[in-house]
From TrEMBL:
The name this protein goes by in its record: non-specific serine/threonine protein kinase
PANTHER family, alphabetized: CASEIN KINASE-RELATED (PTHR11909)
Domain of life (superkingdom): Eukaryota
Domain Protein kinase, first and last residues per copy: 1-267
Swiss-Prot/TrEMBL keywords: ATP-binding, Kinase, Nucleotide-binding, Serine/threonine-protein kinase, Transferase
SUPFAM superfamilies to which the protein is assigned, alphabetical: Protein kinase-like (PK-like)
Gene3D superfamilies: Transferase(Phosphotransferase) domain 1
């Protein structure tokens, strides 16, 4: 077993015909006397996204009497675990900028297909594990995917009055705390919180357990005149990205290009093909010095 979570496990497997390693994700077919549907939804989403740069390849899926399974491309460890390996507990702005830029690009593909992800976080972001794809980011875990629009007409579905809480408390937007219907903008706020944690080492609400207290701190972060303490030091490089998100209407399509331009400022001296922190012993984070953006 190479991974596990609340919904199942991931195992390392070998394709004995092609002599290639694979990842096999399984979940119990029955949970609390009901047929589980999370992996069925994930399989449908994966199938529709095959061929997209940031979507892992899916080789097979199915079920038996005990569990559902998906056989997919093997990837590296997630960026959350990579951050924890860093001697400083964080990643450089150059690496985080490229992670965030590729994540926004991945989400644009997902949103154009009519889905919202609803669980963007460091644990669901990986890179390829072979030389040719080691700098390509892959967004994982499509079990909370939900369609938000008809891709034929481009029309969004009417929002539910109470959409419930779907996602991970640390990374969901203020709107998710308010149980509003999630839109692409909510995924992008999760990119912000993910980037903040990777670059700073922790989000401002890291040590809070009460969901209402977490909600209150996120609200404060969105008050542009009162959030200065949260964007000091290295976090100041995320100010423009955050301001643009706050200015967006959740019912409109996000300005992906503008958001990606904000993120490019974090890695303007690097290309997507340059080594990331974990490829050079975290040298940049150990020797980091920076000037806050003007």
């Amino acid at each position: 077993m190479i991974g596990s979570g609340g919904y199942g496990q991931i195992y390392l497997a070998m394709d004995i015909l092609k002599y290639e390693e694979r990842a096999v994700k399984i979940e119990p077919r029955m949970r609390q006397e009901s047929i589980t549907k999370r992996m069925i939804m994930e399989q449908e989403a994966l199938q529709s996204l095959q061929g997209k740069l940031h979507c892992p390849l899916m080789y097979a899926s199915g079920y038996n009497d005990e569990f559902n399974f998906i056989v997919m491309q093997l990837l590296s460890e997630n960026v959350g675990d990579i951050r924890k390996r860093s001697p400083t507990g964080r990643l450089s702005k150059e690496s985080v900028g490229r992670i965030a830029w590729q994540t926004v690009n991945a989400l644009r593909d997902i949103h154009e297909m009519g889905y919202v992800h609803r669980d963007v976080k460091p644990a669901n972001i990986c890179f390829g594990c072979h030389f040719e794809n080691r700098h390509i980011l892959y967004l994982l875990d499509f079990g909370l995917f939900r369609r938000f629009k008809d891709t034929t007409t481009g029309q969004r579905f009417p929002p539910r009055k109470n959409a419930g809480f779907k996602g991970t408390e640390r990374y969901v937007s203020v709107r998710v705390h308010e149980k509003l219907e999630q839109t692409p903008l909510d995924d992008l706020f999760s990119v912000l919180y993910t980037s903040y944690e990777l670059m700073v080492g922790e989000v401002p609400w890291r040590f809070l357990d009460d969901v209402e207290e977490i909600y209150a701190v996120k609200q404060l972060m969105n008050e542009l005149g009162n959030n200065g303490e949260m964007f000091k030091g290295i976090a100041s490089f995320l100010v423009d990205f955050h301001r643009l998100l706050v200015s967006c209407d959740p019912n409109d399509d996000p300005p992906y290009e503008k958001l990606m331009e904000c993120l490019k400022k974090l890695f303007e001296t690097k290309s997507l093909e340059d080594p990331y922190d974990w490829e050079d012993g975290f040298r940049i984070t150990l020797n980091a010095s920076f000037v806050e953006p003007k």
